[in-house]
Amino acid sequence: MPPVIALTGGIGSGKSSVAAMLKELGAAIIDTDEIAHRLTAAGQPGARAIGEQFGPGYLGADGALDRERMRALVFSDPAAKKKLEAILHPMIRAEVDSEISAAARRAPYIVIVVPLLIETGAYRDLARRILVVDCSEEQQITRVVQRGGLAADAARAIMASQVARAERLKHADDIVRNEADLAALRADVAALHRKYLELAKNPDRSWPNPLNHRQNIK
After folding, report:
1. What CATH number does domain 1-27+108-218 carry, 1.10.3720.10, 1.10.760.10, 3.40.50.300, 3.40.50.1820?
2. pTM for the model
3. Which of 85, 132, 135, 142 is 20 to 30 Å from the Cα of 16, by its Cα?
């Protein structure tokens, strides 16, 4: 089994960009957000279960999850958030396990993208290392607003609901600082990829326990 790395970071930090670069370099990428989107598309098991649990008002006219309405609900109602997690998390985990099995036959290492890795503890049992994509809070807000869909206040509210930046960094085995330009980020990701390839040659000996090792990239 190739080594598994869990990739996380705050909203707007650049997780998707780093994951895309690692994929270009040959890593297998499993994105839990993408899986959640597939499961809650029209006619899919997640959407159907949400409609049964929360009512058809939380689905759009096409039968897919109404993300904006559900986001507003779970931010204001912790009980509703737990109900949603109870529906989706087992489904997502089953898909992740399936994709890991498939990726093990074709990739030197596997990256699972888990935005709320630190908050939930999910997938820590699979990962040999934790990779955190990091940037300043000001940059997070700017990127979220620029990519559209959320105002600055909404971005700040999401950040406030996530673990603090300093706490997230405490859990990191590797850190990619996404605070410069795209070329600098690509160079840092390439260095990280080379490191992971070397470690993957002998994972039993070369991959230290995350509790005993911390290293920044850059």
Report:
1. 3.40.50.300
2. 0.88
3. 85
